[in-house]
UniProtKB/TrEMBL annotation:
Name this polypeptide is given: Peptide chain release factor 3
PROSITE patterns referenced in this protein's UniProt entry, alphabetically: G_TR_1, G_TR_2
One GO molecular-function entry: translation release factor activity, codon nonspecific
Residue intervals of the Tr-type G domain: 12-278
Biological role stated in the UniProt entry: Increases the formation of ribosomal termination complexes and stimulates activities of RF-1 and RF-2. It binds guanine nucleotides and has strong preference for UGA stop codons. It may interact directly with the ribosome. The stimulation of RF-1 and RF-2 is significantly reduced by GTP and GDP, but not by GMP.
CDD domains noted in UniProt: RF3
Binding site for GTP: 89-93
Keywords, alphabetical: Cytoplasm, GTP-binding, Nucleotide-binding, Protein biosynthesis
Coiled coil region boundaries: none
Main location: cytoplasm
Pfam families referenced in this protein's UniProt entry, alphabetically: EF-G_D2, GTP_EFTU, RF3_C
Length: 529
């Protein structure tokens, strides 16, 4: 295959993003609709509902064979207009883990998907917090407008009031939620009328009417929509790309993914507005240009849960240069060479492997047991090392104990390794001692993976006793730890990086501790560093 040597131009046409949403907001539906509009899939797959996640992946794999789109279990890649779009998966439901947050270190922008009836929900808020921490530009898509929901202005107000993000609507719904007629395109002033197609199986038909005809055909609903949109524009919602790129304001679109309403508009925005890959700062703060030799970093490692197949795939985001399968790269963490012969071989049985990748793309390195989350890979000179990935405040805790006390050494080695890899966070305290460390995670899957690997890889099966703490804060002043280490409602534990985590049974216990000790120095941010 001819290698495109103009890396800058190719990278400039990449759009790498993730959808942040709460389960059930419609992420799978939107993903299918996006691929459908990208004319990669001529019919939306019949994948809906909860059993769906694995289904989506396997359906994608079938779709990719049939239509030539390239997919790993971490990313969906498709072409739209003159761009290549990489949609990175942010697992939800039971799969939610620190990996979900880490995916956001590998994107250039995000789409925040809201259910029109629910607005901002807990998981969306958490993922948004990570976007904010990293200054990731966010486009907001308000979904399910075909169903009764909240008022459009109220949803926009919620963005300002709860997360301080200024909405800049680019479309405005005509007809209240549940009576969706179409949208005002606030850039052209036209009425975009949507036509329902049977089951939403094909790209929705759109009709564009000028304002005069819109008024004649839909009357008061049109007038109301235009007035509402003007109201918002006057209160700071005027569109400004710079504010979007600086992540202080968000373009807003209204739609219904299941009917493909508004999806084309979203794709057009991603292509015209969302940032392409750009120079990335290394650990020393120096920026590595996009056209420097190949570099990338591992943001997710997937270990097979099947004992018989200890397969491990490391997913890396390409940051600079051209990746070619077979090239030997250096792992900056160990200084050792790493051969990339088996890039995505696990998907290669039935389809051709991806041989070349550009900045913004995700590559899956198979059997990469030497690779860890956060590792930097690079080719040639100069060397580069990207900053280590952020750590997140855990929400679930369990004491780990070896079931075979004769395996103390293996146990210690395994715990250390899993902690270093970020599979779980490992917490200790003088009170508890080293023999029974506390595993901390943001999702239950992490415990499963840790327990499985302790057994299968380190030959030290463990028992996990879950702790009842639900509320966590970082304790900023170590001298205050003794205050919280009395009684059974709170406890302070230390993470390997020295961070002190104050664990409370619930919000009530936290409130009590605060009332008793008004000087308690606690930080409640989700991202630790
Ligand atoms: P996910 O959990 O975020 O991936 O959500 P899904 O894509 O599985 O969607 C959850 C449910 O919402 C499914 O029953 C979808 O059919 C439904 N849904 C998704 N988008 C829309 C929409 O635009 N309108 C309506 N009425 N339902 C939708």
């Amino acid at each position: 295959m001819a290698v495109d040597t103009d890396v800058l131009a190719t990278a400039g046409r990449r759009r790498t993003f993730a959808v942040i949403s709460h389960p059930d907001a419609g992420k799978s539906t939107l993903t299918e609709a996006l691929a459908l509009h990208a004319k990669v899939i001529s019919e939306a797959g019949a994948v809906h509902g909860k059993a769906g996640r694995r289904g989506v992946v396997s359906d994608w794999m079938e779709m990719e064979q049939a239509r030539g789109i390239s997919i790993t279990s971490a990313a969906l890649q498709f072409g739209y207009r003159d761009c290549v779009v990489n949609l990175l998966d942010t697992p939800g439901h039971a799969d939610f883990s620190e990996d979900t947050y880490r995916v956001l270190t590998a994107v250039d922008s995000a789409v925040m998907l809201l259910d029109a009836a629910k607005g901002l929900e807990p998981q969306t808020l958490k993922l948004f917090e990570v976007c904010r921490h990293r200054d990731i530009p966010v486009i907001t898509f308000i979904n399910k407008w075909d169903r009764p929901g909240r008022d459009a202005l109220a949803l926009c107000d919620e963005l300002v009031e709860r997360i301080g993000l200024q909405p800049m609507p680019l479309t405005w719904p005509v007809g209240e939620a549940g009576h969706f007629r179409g949208v005002v395109d606030l850039v052209t002033g036209e009425f975009v009328r949507y036509e329902r197609t049977a089951g939403g199986a094909t790209a929705a038909a759109e009709e564009h009417l000028d304002a005069e005809r819109a008024l004649a055909e839909v009357g008061p609903e049109w007038t109301r929509a235009v007035e509402e949109a003007e109201l918002l524009a006057m209160s700071g919602g005027e569109f400004d790309r710079e504010r979007y790129l600086k992540a202080s304001a968000t373009p807003v679109l209204f739609g219904a993914a299941v009917l493909n309403f508004g999806v084309r508009h979203l794709l057009d925005l991603l292509v015209s507005l969302a940032p392409p890959p750009s120079a990335r700062p290394d650990a020393a703060g120096d920026e590595r240009p996009v056209d420097a030799p190949f570099s990338g970093f591992v943001f997710k490692v997937q270990t097979g849960m099947d004992r018989a197949h200890r397969d491990q795939v490391a997913f890396a985001r390409v940051c600079s240069g051209v990746f070619e399968r077979g090239m030997v790269v250096t792992n900056a963490t160990t200084g050792r060479p790493f051969a990339t012969k088996y890039t995505q071989q696990m998907f290669g049985r039935e389809r051709s492997t991806v041989d070349t990748a550009y900045p913004g793309d995700v590559i899956g390195l198979v059997n990469a047991t030497a690779l860890r989350v956060g590792d930097t890979l690079y080719a040639g000179k100069p060397a580069v090392r990207y900053p280590r990935l952020p750590t997140f405040t855990p929400t679930a805790f369990a004491v780990a104990r070896p079931t075979d006390l004769g395996k103390a050494k293996q146990f210690r080695r395994g715990v250390e390794q899993l902690g270093a890899e970020g599979v779980v966070q490992v917490l200790t305290s003088d009170r508890r001692g080293d023999a029974a460390p506390v595993f901390a995670a943001v999702g239950p899957m992490q415990f499963e993976v840790a327990a499985h690997r302790m057994d299968a890889e380190f030959n030290s099966p463990i028992r996990l006793d879950h702790l009842p703490y639900r509320t966590v804060r970082r304790l900023l002043d170590p001298a205050q730890a003794p205050i919280l280490n009395t009684g059974t409602r709170s406890e302070v534990l230390v993470r390997a990086d020295g961070t002190l985590l104050a664990l409370f049974l619930d919000e009530i216990s936290l409130g009590m501790a605060r009332r008793l000790n008004p000087d308690l120095a606690l930080d409640d941010s989700l991202v630790d560093n």
